[in-house]
Amino acid sequence: MAAYDLLIKNVHVVTPDGGEPEPADIAVSGGRISRIAAGLPAAHAAAVVDGAGRHAFPGVVDAHQHWGIYHPVERDAESESRACAQGGVTTALTYTRTGQYYLNQGGPYADFLPKLLAAAEGRAYVDYAFHVAPMSRQHIGELPQLIDEFGVSSFKIFMFYGGFGLHGASSSQREFLMIPDGEFYDYAHFEFVMRGVQAARLRFPELAGDISLSLHCETAEIMRAYTEMVQEEGRLSGLEAYSAARPPHSEGLAVAIAAYLAHETGLPAINLLHLSSAKAMESALTMARAFPHIDFRREVTIGHLLASYDTASGIGGKVNPPLRSQDDVARLWEHLLAGDVDWVVSDHACCQEETKFGEPPDDVFAAKSGFGGTEYVLPGLITAGVPRGLSLAAVAQLTAANPARRFGLHNKGILAEGYDADVALVDLDDPWTVHAADSQSAQEYTPFEGFAMTARVTDTFVRGTRVLADGTVAGQPAGRYLRRPYHGQAD
Q1: What is the residue-wise DSSP string for 188-231?
Q2: CATH architecture of 59-407+436-448
Q3: How confident is the model at residue 412 (pLDDT cuts 50, 70, 90)?
Q4: I need a surface site. Which of 87, 226, 441, 491 has the fewest CB within 10 A?
Q5: Is the pTM of this model over 0.90?
Q6: What are the residue boundaries of the structural domains of the chain, listed by start?
Q7: Measured between alpha carbons, how far is 350 from 414 in angstroms, rounded to an integer?
Q8: Could you tell me the CA-to-CA distances from 153 to 147, 175, 211 in Å, in that order?
Q9: Does the pLDDT value for residue 490 go beyond 60?
Protein backbone atom coordinates (compact mmCIF):
# COMPACT_ATOMS: atom_id res chain seq x y z
CA MET A 1 0.00 0.00 0.00
CA ALA A 2 1.35 3.45 -0.96
CA ALA A 3 2.53 5.67 1.89
CA TYR A 4 1.26 8.81 0.12
CA ASP A 5 -1.72 9.57 -2.08
CA LEU A 6 0.29 12.11 -4.08
CA LEU A 7 3.89 13.18 -4.37
CA ILE A 8 4.77 16.51 -5.98
CA LYS A 9 8.46 16.16 -6.74
CA ASN A 10 11.22 18.55 -7.70
CA VAL A 11 9.83 21.92 -6.59
CA HIS A 12 11.11 24.96 -4.71
CA VAL A 13 8.85 25.45 -1.71
CA VAL A 14 7.90 29.06 -0.97
CA THR A 15 7.02 29.81 2.64
CA PRO A 16 5.85 33.11 4.15
CA ASP A 17 8.47 33.08 6.91
CA GLY A 18 11.00 35.06 4.89
CA GLY A 19 13.38 32.25 4.04
CA GLU A 20 14.63 31.42 0.57
CA PRO A 21 12.66 28.77 -1.35
CA GLU A 22 14.15 25.35 -0.73
CA PRO A 23 14.27 22.40 -3.18
CA ALA A 24 11.96 19.70 -1.86
CA ASP A 25 9.18 17.24 -2.57
CA ILE A 26 5.66 17.57 -1.15
CA ALA A 27 3.88 14.42 -0.01
CA VAL A 28 0.09 14.42 0.39
CA SER A 29 -2.10 12.02 2.36
CA GLY A 30 -5.82 12.39 2.96
CA GLY A 31 -5.88 15.86 1.43
CA ARG A 32 -3.19 17.22 3.75
CA ILE A 33 0.54 17.73 3.45
CA SER A 34 2.10 14.79 5.25
CA ARG A 35 5.75 15.53 4.57
CA ILE A 36 8.00 18.10 2.90
CA ALA A 37 11.53 16.92 2.27
CA ALA A 38 14.04 16.42 -0.50
CA GLY A 39 14.42 13.07 -2.20
CA LEU A 40 11.17 11.39 -1.19
CA PRO A 41 10.89 8.07 -3.09
CA ALA A 42 8.37 8.13 -5.94
CA ALA A 43 7.67 4.45 -5.33
CA HIS A 44 6.00 5.37 -2.04
CA ALA A 45 3.23 7.38 -3.72
CA ALA A 46 0.06 6.33 -5.51
CA ALA A 47 0.46 9.29 -7.90
CA VAL A 48 3.47 11.41 -8.78
CA VAL A 49 3.63 14.87 -10.39
CA ASP A 50 6.99 16.20 -11.52
CA GLY A 51 7.22 19.89 -10.64
CA ALA A 52 10.15 20.34 -13.04
CA GLY A 53 11.90 22.77 -10.74
CA ARG A 54 8.97 25.19 -10.53
CA HIS A 55 8.15 27.17 -7.41
CA ALA A 56 5.44 25.79 -5.15
CA PHE A 57 3.40 28.57 -3.54
CA PRO A 58 0.65 28.07 -0.99
CA GLY A 59 -2.64 28.15 -2.86
CA VAL A 60 -3.96 31.69 -3.07
CA VAL A 61 -6.68 32.66 -0.62
CA ASP A 62 -8.49 35.26 -2.71
CA ALA A 63 -10.37 37.00 0.09
CA HIS A 64 -12.51 39.28 -2.07
CA GLN A 65 -14.75 37.91 -4.80
CA HIS A 66 -18.40 38.29 -5.84
CA TRP A 67 -19.97 35.08 -7.10
CA GLY A 68 -23.53 35.54 -8.24
CA ILE A 69 -23.57 39.31 -8.54
CA TYR A 70 -24.29 39.44 -12.31
CA HIS A 71 -25.01 35.80 -13.08
CA PRO A 72 -26.74 33.03 -11.14
CA VAL A 73 -24.60 31.70 -8.31
CA GLU A 74 -24.74 28.24 -9.88
CA ARG A 75 -23.05 29.57 -13.00
CA ASP A 76 -20.39 31.67 -11.31
CA ALA A 77 -19.49 28.91 -8.88
CA GLU A 78 -18.51 26.77 -11.85
CA SER A 79 -17.03 29.17 -14.39
CA GLU A 80 -15.35 31.62 -12.03
CA SER A 81 -13.90 28.88 -9.86
CA ARG A 82 -12.27 27.57 -13.03
CA ALA A 83 -10.64 31.00 -13.39
CA CYS A 84 -9.53 30.63 -9.77
CA ALA A 85 -7.85 27.33 -10.52
CA GLN A 86 -6.19 28.87 -13.56
CA GLY A 87 -4.54 31.48 -11.34
CA GLY A 88 -3.47 29.25 -8.46
CA VAL A 89 -6.38 30.33 -6.25
CA THR A 90 -7.49 27.42 -4.05
CA THR A 91 -9.88 29.26 -1.71
CA ALA A 92 -12.33 31.99 -2.74
CA LEU A 93 -14.01 34.18 -0.13
CA THR A 94 -16.98 35.78 -1.81
CA TYR A 95 -19.16 38.64 -0.56
CA THR A 96 -22.92 38.37 -0.57
CA ARG A 97 -25.93 40.36 0.61
CA THR A 98 -29.68 40.52 0.32
CA GLY A 99 -31.30 43.00 -2.07
CA GLN A 100 -31.03 43.41 -5.82
CA TYR A 101 -28.32 41.36 -7.54
CA TYR A 102 -27.08 38.09 -5.99
CA LEU A 103 -30.32 36.18 -5.25
CA ASN A 104 -32.51 39.28 -5.72
CA GLN A 105 -34.12 38.52 -2.38
CA GLY A 106 -34.70 40.38 0.86
CA GLY A 107 -35.63 38.99 4.24
CA PRO A 108 -33.70 36.96 6.81
CA TYR A 109 -30.41 35.23 6.15
CA ALA A 110 -31.91 32.12 7.71
CA ASP A 111 -33.86 31.82 4.43
CA PHE A 112 -31.24 33.35 2.12
CA LEU A 113 -28.09 31.44 3.05
CA PRO A 114 -29.44 27.88 2.61
CA LYS A 115 -30.46 28.82 -0.93
CA LEU A 116 -27.02 30.32 -1.59
CA LEU A 117 -25.19 27.28 -0.25
CA ALA A 118 -27.40 24.89 -2.21
CA ALA A 119 -26.82 26.85 -5.41
CA ALA A 120 -23.02 26.61 -5.11
CA GLU A 121 -22.77 23.05 -3.78
CA GLY A 122 -20.95 20.61 -6.03
CA ARG A 123 -20.11 23.19 -8.69
CA ALA A 124 -16.87 24.85 -7.59
CA TYR A 125 -13.37 23.72 -8.50
CA VAL A 126 -11.90 25.43 -5.43
CA ASP A 127 -12.88 25.74 -1.78
CA TYR A 128 -15.04 28.71 -0.87
CA ALA A 129 -16.68 30.63 1.96
CA PHE A 130 -18.93 33.67 2.21
CA HIS A 131 -18.66 37.10 3.83
CA VAL A 132 -22.15 38.37 4.72
CA ALA A 133 -23.42 41.97 4.80
CA PRO A 134 -26.06 42.78 7.47
CA MET A 135 -28.45 45.05 5.58
CA SER A 136 -31.25 45.38 8.15
CA ARG A 137 -31.94 45.29 11.89
CA GLN A 138 -33.11 41.72 11.53
CA HIS A 139 -29.74 40.73 10.08
CA ILE A 140 -27.91 42.23 13.05
CA GLY A 141 -30.01 40.02 15.29
CA GLU A 142 -29.06 37.03 13.16
CA LEU A 143 -25.30 37.46 13.62
CA PRO A 144 -24.95 34.79 16.33
CA GLN A 145 -26.86 32.31 14.15
CA LEU A 146 -24.70 33.13 11.12
CA ILE A 147 -21.60 32.39 13.17
CA ASP A 148 -22.82 29.33 15.06
CA GLU A 149 -25.03 27.60 12.49
CA PHE A 150 -23.54 28.64 9.15
CA GLY A 151 -19.87 29.12 10.03
CA VAL A 152 -19.78 32.71 8.77
CA SER A 153 -17.21 34.75 10.68
CA SER A 154 -16.69 37.85 8.52
CA PHE A 155 -19.16 40.60 7.73
CA LYS A 156 -19.33 43.68 5.51
CA ILE A 157 -20.61 47.24 5.29
CA PHE A 158 -20.96 49.06 1.94
CA MET A 159 -20.58 52.62 3.21
CA PHE A 160 -21.80 54.36 0.04
CA TYR A 161 -25.03 52.40 -0.38
CA GLY A 162 -27.00 54.79 1.85
CA GLY A 163 -27.29 57.33 -0.96
CA PHE A 164 -25.75 55.65 -3.97
CA GLY A 165 -26.51 52.55 -6.01
CA LEU A 166 -24.08 49.93 -7.18
CA HIS A 167 -23.31 51.88 -10.35
CA GLY A 168 -24.19 55.51 -9.52
CA ALA A 169 -26.62 57.87 -7.83
CA SER A 170 -29.99 56.35 -6.99
CA SER A 171 -33.29 57.63 -5.67
CA SER A 172 -34.66 54.18 -4.87
CA GLN A 173 -32.32 52.84 -2.21
CA ARG A 174 -35.02 51.01 -0.25
CA GLU A 175 -36.08 49.16 -3.41
CA PHE A 176 -32.46 48.47 -4.32
CA LEU A 177 -31.51 47.18 -0.87
CA MET A 178 -34.88 45.53 -0.14
CA ILE A 179 -34.89 46.78 3.44
CA PRO A 180 -38.10 47.29 5.46
CA ASP A 181 -39.99 50.57 5.54
CA GLY A 182 -38.74 52.83 8.29
CA GLU A 183 -35.18 51.48 8.15
CA PHE A 184 -32.19 53.24 6.65
CA TYR A 185 -28.83 52.00 5.46
CA ASP A 186 -26.83 54.86 6.96
CA TYR A 187 -24.16 55.72 9.53
CA ALA A 188 -26.47 54.78 12.38
CA HIS A 189 -26.99 51.35 10.83
CA PHE A 190 -23.24 50.99 10.38
CA GLU A 191 -22.77 51.77 14.08
CA PHE A 192 -25.33 49.17 15.09
CA VAL A 193 -23.72 46.57 12.81
CA MET A 194 -20.42 47.21 14.58
CA ARG A 195 -22.08 46.88 17.97
CA GLY A 196 -23.69 43.65 16.81
CA VAL A 197 -20.41 42.18 15.56
CA GLN A 198 -18.67 43.11 18.81
CA ALA A 199 -21.51 41.60 20.84
CA ALA A 200 -21.07 38.39 18.84
CA ARG A 201 -17.35 38.40 19.57
CA LEU A 202 -18.14 38.64 23.28
CA ARG A 203 -20.79 35.93 23.03
CA PHE A 204 -18.33 33.53 21.38
CA PRO A 205 -15.01 34.40 23.08
CA GLU A 206 -13.30 31.30 21.74
CA LEU A 207 -14.07 32.50 18.20
CA ALA A 208 -13.49 36.22 18.73
CA GLY A 209 -10.11 36.22 17.00
CA ASP A 210 -11.74 34.92 13.82
CA ILE A 211 -14.64 37.39 13.70
CA SER A 212 -14.09 40.67 11.82
CA LEU A 213 -15.88 43.39 9.90
CA SER A 214 -14.90 44.59 6.44
CA LEU A 215 -15.78 47.98 4.99
CA HIS A 216 -16.08 49.37 1.49
CA CYS A 217 -15.08 52.95 2.25
CA GLU A 218 -16.56 55.62 -0.01
CA THR A 219 -18.80 58.57 0.87
CA ALA A 220 -22.09 58.87 -1.01
CA GLU A 221 -22.51 62.62 -0.49
CA ILE A 222 -19.08 63.41 -1.93
CA MET A 223 -19.60 61.07 -4.87
CA ARG A 224 -23.02 62.47 -5.71
CA ALA A 225 -21.73 66.05 -5.85
CA TYR A 226 -18.60 65.19 -7.81
CA THR A 227 -20.49 62.98 -10.27
CA GLU A 228 -22.76 65.92 -11.10
CA MET A 229 -19.75 68.24 -11.50
CA VAL A 230 -17.84 65.87 -13.76
CA GLN A 231 -20.84 65.17 -15.97
CA GLU A 232 -21.82 68.82 -16.23
CA GLU A 233 -18.29 69.95 -17.11
CA GLY A 234 -17.85 67.23 -19.74
CA ARG A 235 -14.11 67.79 -19.72
CA LEU A 236 -13.09 64.25 -18.73
CA SER A 237 -14.13 60.94 -20.22
CA GLY A 238 -13.74 57.24 -19.65
CA LEU A 239 -12.13 55.83 -16.55
CA GLU A 240 -10.48 59.15 -15.67
CA ALA A 241 -13.93 60.76 -15.47
CA TYR A 242 -15.17 57.96 -13.24
CA SER A 243 -12.20 58.37 -10.90
CA ALA A 244 -12.86 62.10 -10.66
CA ALA A 245 -16.54 61.42 -9.96
CA ARG A 246 -15.62 59.17 -7.02
CA PRO A 247 -12.56 61.11 -5.82
CA PRO A 248 -9.87 59.68 -3.55
CA HIS A 249 -10.78 61.96 -0.66
CA SER A 250 -14.19 60.28 -0.63
CA GLU A 251 -12.35 57.11 0.35
CA GLY A 252 -10.19 58.88 2.90
CA LEU A 253 -13.19 60.48 4.62
CA ALA A 254 -15.08 57.18 4.79
CA VAL A 255 -12.04 55.44 6.30
CA ALA A 256 -11.91 58.09 9.04
CA ILE A 257 -15.62 57.73 9.79
CA ALA A 258 -15.38 53.94 9.88
CA ALA A 259 -12.39 54.09 12.19
CA TYR A 260 -14.08 56.39 14.67
CA LEU A 261 -17.22 54.25 14.70
CA ALA A 262 -15.06 51.21 15.42
CA HIS A 263 -13.48 53.12 18.31
CA GLU A 264 -16.91 54.22 19.60
CA THR A 265 -18.34 50.70 19.48
CA GLY A 266 -15.27 48.90 20.83
CA LEU A 267 -14.92 46.70 17.75
CA PRO A 268 -11.19 45.95 17.37
CA ALA A 269 -11.16 43.86 14.15
CA ILE A 270 -11.61 46.05 11.06
CA ASN A 271 -10.67 45.27 7.44
CA LEU A 272 -10.41 48.25 5.08
CA LEU A 273 -11.17 46.88 1.65
CA HIS A 274 -9.64 47.64 -1.75
CA LEU A 275 -7.84 50.88 -0.80
CA SER A 276 -7.26 52.40 -4.21
CA SER A 277 -5.41 55.66 -3.69
CA ALA A 278 -2.63 57.40 -1.81
CA LYS A 279 -5.22 59.45 0.10
CA ALA A 280 -7.15 56.35 1.16
CA MET A 281 -3.99 54.61 2.32
CA GLU A 282 -2.74 57.68 4.17
CA SER A 283 -6.09 57.99 5.94
CA ALA A 284 -5.95 54.32 6.89
CA LEU A 285 -2.48 54.67 8.38
CA THR A 286 -3.46 57.87 10.19
CA MET A 287 -6.43 56.09 11.74
CA ALA A 288 -4.19 53.20 12.81
CA ARG A 289 -1.99 55.66 14.68
CA ALA A 290 -4.99 57.45 16.18
CA PHE A 291 -6.63 54.23 17.39
CA PRO A 292 -3.81 51.77 18.16
CA HIS A 293 -6.24 49.50 20.05
CA ILE A 294 -8.00 48.67 16.77
CA ASP A 295 -6.50 45.92 14.66
CA PHE A 296 -6.87 47.41 11.19
CA ARG A 297 -6.04 45.28 8.14
CA ARG A 298 -5.53 46.97 4.78
CA GLU A 299 -6.46 45.35 1.48
CA VAL A 300 -5.39 46.28 -2.06
CA THR A 301 -6.56 44.67 -5.30
CA ILE A 302 -4.37 43.43 -8.12
CA GLY A 303 -6.33 45.73 -10.45
CA HIS A 304 -5.32 48.85 -8.54
CA LEU A 305 -1.70 47.63 -8.49
CA LEU A 306 -1.46 46.76 -12.19
CA ALA A 307 -3.65 49.31 -13.97
CA SER A 308 -4.41 53.02 -13.90
CA TYR A 309 -7.20 54.86 -15.66
CA ASP A 310 -4.65 55.62 -18.38
CA THR A 311 -3.34 52.09 -18.91
CA ALA A 312 -6.43 49.89 -18.48
CA SER A 313 -7.96 48.51 -21.65
CA GLY A 314 -11.18 50.49 -22.07
CA ILE A 315 -14.11 51.27 -19.78
CA GLY A 316 -14.40 47.59 -18.94
CA GLY A 317 -12.08 48.70 -16.15
CA LYS A 318 -14.94 50.48 -14.37
CA VAL A 319 -14.92 49.34 -10.75
CA ASN A 320 -15.73 50.65 -7.27
CA PRO A 321 -13.60 52.31 -6.04
CA PRO A 322 -12.26 53.41 -9.43
CA LEU A 323 -8.91 52.71 -11.02
CA ARG A 324 -6.78 55.72 -10.18
CA SER A 325 -3.87 57.72 -11.59
CA GLN A 326 -0.47 56.27 -12.34
CA ASP A 327 0.84 58.24 -9.37
CA ASP A 328 -1.64 56.45 -7.12
CA VAL A 329 -0.47 53.11 -8.52
CA ALA A 330 3.12 54.03 -7.69
CA ARG A 331 2.15 55.12 -4.17
CA LEU A 332 0.25 51.88 -3.54
CA TRP A 333 3.37 49.94 -4.49
CA GLU A 334 5.43 52.06 -2.08
CA HIS A 335 3.02 51.21 0.72
CA LEU A 336 2.96 47.53 -0.19
CA LEU A 337 6.75 47.31 -0.18
CA ALA A 338 6.83 49.17 3.14
CA GLY A 339 4.61 46.52 4.72
CA ASP A 340 1.48 48.68 4.97
CA VAL A 341 -0.69 46.26 2.95
CA ASP A 342 -1.94 43.06 4.58
CA TRP A 343 -3.24 41.16 1.56
CA VAL A 344 -3.82 41.42 -2.19
CA VAL A 345 -7.07 40.24 -3.77
CA SER A 346 -8.94 40.33 -7.06
CA ASP A 347 -12.39 41.78 -6.15
CA HIS A 348 -13.47 39.37 -8.88
CA ALA A 349 -16.97 40.14 -10.21
CA CYS A 350 -17.56 38.54 -13.59
CA CYS A 351 -19.67 40.89 -15.73
CA GLN A 352 -20.12 39.88 -19.35
CA GLU A 353 -20.20 42.39 -22.19
CA GLU A 354 -23.97 42.35 -22.67
CA THR A 355 -24.39 43.35 -19.03
CA LYS A 356 -21.30 45.52 -18.57
CA PHE A 357 -21.73 48.12 -21.29
CA GLY A 358 -24.70 50.47 -21.52
CA GLU A 359 -25.88 52.96 -24.14
CA PRO A 360 -23.84 54.47 -25.59
CA PRO A 361 -21.28 51.71 -25.02
CA ASP A 362 -18.42 54.16 -24.53
CA ASP A 363 -20.21 56.04 -21.72
CA VAL A 364 -18.49 55.04 -18.48
CA PHE A 365 -21.42 56.27 -16.41
CA ALA A 366 -23.79 53.93 -18.26
CA ALA A 367 -21.56 50.90 -17.68
CA LYS A 368 -21.88 48.45 -14.79
CA SER A 369 -19.21 48.32 -12.09
CA GLY A 370 -16.79 45.46 -11.53
CA PHE A 371 -14.72 42.99 -13.52
CA GLY A 372 -13.00 39.65 -13.08
CA GLY A 373 -9.33 39.06 -12.47
CA THR A 374 -8.73 36.30 -9.92
CA GLU A 375 -6.62 34.45 -12.50
CA TYR A 376 -4.09 37.33 -12.50
CA VAL A 377 -3.50 37.83 -8.75
CA LEU A 378 -0.53 35.50 -8.30
CA PRO A 379 1.19 35.92 -11.69
CA GLY A 380 0.49 39.66 -11.65
CA LEU A 381 1.92 40.22 -8.18
CA ILE A 382 5.06 38.25 -9.05
CA THR A 383 5.43 39.97 -12.42
CA ALA A 384 5.07 43.51 -11.10
CA GLY A 385 6.33 43.00 -7.56
CA VAL A 386 9.54 41.01 -7.80
CA PRO A 387 11.32 43.60 -10.03
CA ARG A 388 10.35 46.21 -7.42
CA GLY A 389 12.03 44.18 -4.67
CA LEU A 390 9.08 42.13 -3.40
CA SER A 391 10.29 38.77 -2.11
CA LEU A 392 8.60 35.51 -2.99
CA ALA A 393 7.98 34.99 0.74
CA ALA A 394 6.11 38.30 0.82
CA VAL A 395 4.03 37.17 -2.16
CA ALA A 396 3.06 34.07 -0.15
CA GLN A 397 2.15 36.26 2.84
CA LEU A 398 0.06 38.71 0.82
CA THR A 399 -1.84 36.14 -1.23
CA ALA A 400 -2.25 33.27 1.22
CA ALA A 401 -0.98 33.32 4.80
CA ASN A 402 -2.31 36.71 5.90
CA PRO A 403 -5.88 36.43 4.59
CA ALA A 404 -6.11 32.81 5.78
CA ARG A 405 -5.26 33.79 9.34
CA ARG A 406 -7.54 36.82 9.42
CA PHE A 407 -10.57 35.00 8.09
CA GLY A 408 -10.39 31.87 10.23
CA LEU A 409 -8.91 29.47 7.69
CA HIS A 410 -6.46 27.89 10.08
CA ASN A 411 -5.53 24.94 7.89
CA LYS A 412 -4.78 26.98 4.80
CA GLY A 413 -2.34 29.60 3.54
CA ILE A 414 0.95 27.83 4.34
CA LEU A 415 2.83 24.89 2.85
CA ALA A 416 3.61 22.89 5.97
CA GLU A 417 2.99 19.43 7.32
CA GLY A 418 -0.57 19.01 8.57
CA TYR A 419 -1.99 21.81 6.43
CA ASP A 420 -4.37 21.34 3.52
CA ALA A 421 -2.47 20.39 0.37
CA ASP A 422 -3.40 23.61 -1.45
CA VAL A 423 -0.53 24.21 -3.86
CA ALA A 424 0.12 26.45 -6.86
CA LEU A 425 3.07 25.58 -9.08
CA VAL A 426 4.50 28.64 -10.80
CA ASP A 427 7.06 28.98 -13.57
CA LEU A 428 8.79 32.25 -12.73
CA ASP A 429 10.24 32.63 -16.20
CA ASP A 430 7.48 31.93 -18.72
CA PRO A 431 6.50 35.20 -20.43
CA TRP A 432 2.94 35.53 -21.73
CA THR A 433 0.44 38.19 -22.68
CA VAL A 434 -2.97 38.60 -21.11
CA HIS A 435 -5.86 37.96 -23.49
CA ALA A 436 -9.42 37.62 -22.27
CA ALA A 437 -9.99 34.82 -24.75
CA ASP A 438 -7.48 32.67 -22.85
CA SER A 439 -9.25 33.02 -19.50
CA GLN A 440 -11.48 30.37 -17.97
CA SER A 441 -13.79 33.13 -16.73
CA ALA A 442 -17.07 33.68 -18.57
CA GLN A 443 -16.10 37.34 -19.02
CA GLU A 444 -15.22 38.19 -22.64
CA TYR A 445 -12.97 41.20 -21.93
CA THR A 446 -10.41 42.31 -19.36
CA PRO A 447 -8.91 45.69 -18.43
CA PHE A 448 -5.57 43.85 -18.45
CA GLU A 449 -5.81 42.98 -22.16
CA GLY A 450 -2.31 43.05 -23.66
CA PHE A 451 -0.51 43.26 -20.31
CA ALA A 452 2.80 41.36 -20.26
CA MET A 453 3.30 38.73 -17.55
CA THR A 454 6.54 36.99 -16.69
CA ALA A 455 5.24 34.25 -14.39
CA ARG A 456 2.68 31.56 -15.18
CA VAL A 457 0.70 29.20 -12.94
CA THR A 458 1.00 25.73 -14.43
CA ASP A 459 -0.65 23.47 -11.84
CA THR A 460 -3.09 23.95 -8.96
CA PHE A 461 -3.96 21.44 -6.25
CA VAL A 462 -6.94 21.80 -3.88
CA ARG A 463 -6.48 19.52 -0.87
CA GLY A 464 -4.30 17.35 -3.06
CA THR A 465 -6.73 17.20 -5.99
CA ARG A 466 -5.16 18.47 -9.20
CA VAL A 467 -7.62 21.00 -10.61
CA LEU A 468 -5.15 22.60 -13.04
CA ALA A 469 -2.76 20.34 -14.92
CA ASP A 470 -0.13 21.86 -17.22
CA GLY A 471 -2.26 24.98 -17.62
CA THR A 472 -5.55 23.20 -18.27
CA VAL A 473 -8.43 22.93 -15.81
CA ALA A 474 -8.74 19.25 -14.96
CA GLY A 475 -11.19 16.80 -13.49
CA GLN A 476 -14.50 17.54 -11.82
CA PRO A 477 -15.41 20.24 -9.29
CA ALA A 478 -13.71 19.38 -6.00
CA GLY A 479 -14.37 22.54 -3.99
CA ARG A 480 -16.12 22.55 -0.62
CA TYR A 481 -17.93 25.15 1.43
CA LEU A 482 -15.75 26.00 4.42
CA ARG A 483 -17.42 26.59 7.76
CA ARG A 484 -15.22 28.91 9.75
CA PRO A 485 -13.18 28.72 11.84
CA TYR A 486 -11.83 26.03 9.55
CA HIS A 487 -9.32 23.51 10.88
CA GLY A 488 -9.39 20.99 8.06
CA GLN A 489 -12.67 19.28 8.79
CA ALA A 490 -14.29 17.37 5.94
CA ASP A 491 -17.38 19.59 5.62
Answers
A1: HHHHHHHHHHHHHHHHSGGGGGG-EEEEE---HHHHHHHHHHHH
A2: Alpha-Beta Barrel (3.20)
A3: very high
A4: 491
A5: yes
A6: 59-407+436-448
A7: 28
A8: 6, 28, 5
A9: no
